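Researcher: Re-running this chain for the archive, since the previous output was lost when a drive failed. Same request as before.
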Amino acid sequence: MKTPTVPACIADAAHGPPPYFLTRDRVPVHRCERCGTIMALVEFEHAQYESDSYYSMKFRTREAIDRYWGMRWRHVLATLGRRIAPGRLLDVGAGNGYFVHLARQEFGWDATGLEISEKEARFAAEVLATPLRVESLEAHAGCDYAAVTLFNVVEHVPDPLGLIAEAVAHLQPGGLVVVTTPNPDCIQVRVKGLRNWGMIQPPHHLNLFTRRSLGRLLERAGLVPIHYETLSTYMEWLWKYDTGDGHLRRALFDVLRLTGLGADHFYIARRPPDPGAGS
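Model: Regenerated structure tokens:
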């Protein structure tokens, strides 16, 4: 069996090829010693996103979807709304479409969702009456968006910098890119150790980023990070103890967010105005 060539660190090529870290599901995984980026040496597999068991389609009613996803998306939308007035928004990798639905119905955004999975797009249309476009960001002709969102997408693609740069190309000057992705400094890693972190799961996740390396990736794409926190919103284990209004879940979410130990990074970054604009 041919040993795969280890590429340079996906977050910053100046760091060189990262050393071997572990093997997961027979896939070699490498970790950059300088920025902590984790890279699985495996190719992208589209078929997994067309599975009936894919996690974004696990709930089949609007009420159940809202219970699982609603707190996350409302927090993100409220945070985004404090940075920019609602306008045209493009959600890349829209999944089950619930973020697009809430952005339109509750927060006043003119939101468009892109999804490469035909099955997820069909789910969004049938369950949430939210049409999504089945196309990649590269193929999407729209531009001049006030915000482009990439929720738990960059860890799935072989070229995360290229994807973020493409998002910037669809953005108006001064617009915002929003990124979430798993956080290798989360509470689960602190307790179980990085080698036992469930997010290292190739070929589902190809690249995983520290706060530092994700910030570097945004900067390399020409963006200026303006907001960072972490998110932990699902916490199904807590549901049976919680009240109907989710006070316990919200309290734990806030503790993890404020300590930086949440399950996901949540970055907002701005595209600078074009030189000479307004002069």
